[in-house]
Amino acid sequence: MTFHKLNKEFSNKTVDITGCGSIFPEIKEKLSKKTVGIAGCGGLGSNAAVALARAGVGKLIIADFDVIVESNLNRQYFFYAQIGMKKCLALKENIISINPKCSVIAIDIELDEKNIPEIYKNCDLIIEAFDTAESKLMLVETVLINFLTIPLIIGSGVGGWGKFESIKIEQYDNIYICGDNTNEVSALYPPMAPRIGIIANMQANKALEILLKS
């Protein structure tokens, strides 16, 4: 398409990039009634939570037992002054600073198959944001046993940098996998802000798609 045709196409449309017009208020109104559970408040969890809060999701249930250290700051939505704080509490603080209308339930706990059903039982969907394959598998199995109808959005293959074309979303019934499903975090594929951010926002974007259809 030539620049002239592209310019003509856009000039014939009303484009509102501020979010103040169009159907954005209706979207926020619908999302304000939704509850999203996020399992883990690290790179994926913190960035996905912030994206959902900005979009207008009404309630977030976030859980993590870990503490912020300086090395987290290369990819997680925290600040230098928050080093030493519990991740779930610091993330709640950051979310409320962005969107005070978002209700954030922050739970300082190590998630397992016993407490997950109680913590996330009232969620419209759940986002997985764990670091290890074992924890991811535990969450998947627990959700399948207890919440067969609740969508679960997983991050898999988030390590390294580049290879944007390999990042995708795969669906298996009510489970959605975001990432390249290959390059897990390792010494060769360290967690880097760009890829972590892309996949976290893919998770948030898929969550919005599901929530706005329901």
Task: Note the topology.
Layout: H1 3-11, H2 24-31, E1 35-39, H3 43-55, E2 59-63, H4 87-98, E3 103-107, H5 116-119, E4 125-128, H6 133-146, E5 152-155, E6 168-172, E7 175-179, H7 193-213
Parallel strand pairs: 1-2, 1-4, 2-3, 4-5, 5-7
Antiparallel strand pairs: 6-7
Structure description:
The chain is of the alpha/beta class. The protein has helices spanning 3-11, 24-31, 43-55, 87-98, 116-119, 133-146, 193-213; strands at residues 35-39, 59-63, 103-107, 125-128, 152-155, 168-172, 175-179. It has one domain (23-213): NAD(P)-binding Rossmann-like Domain (Rossmann fold, 3-Layer(aba) Sandwich), CATH 3.40.50. Helix content is 38%, strand content 15%. Strands 3-2-1-4-5-7-6 form a 7-stranded mixed sheet, with helices on both faces. Helix 6 (133-146) links the parallel strand 4 and strand 5 (152-155). Helix 3 packs parallel to helix 4 and helix 3 packs across helix 7. The longest helix has 21 residues, at 193-213. The model has no long low-confidence stretch (mean pLDDT 88).
Strand portion: 15-25%
The CATH level-2 architecture is identified as 3-Layer(aba) Sandwich
Q: Count up the helices.
A: 7
Q: Mean of the pLDDT scores?
A: 88
Please, how many domains?
1
| CATH homologous superfamily identity | NAD(P)-binding Rossmann-like Domain
Q: In angstroms, what is the radius of gyration?
A: 18 Å
Taking the alpha carbons of the first and last residues, their distance comes to 36 Å
Q: Structural class, please?
A: alpha/beta
CATH class assignment: Alpha Beta
Helix content: 25-40%
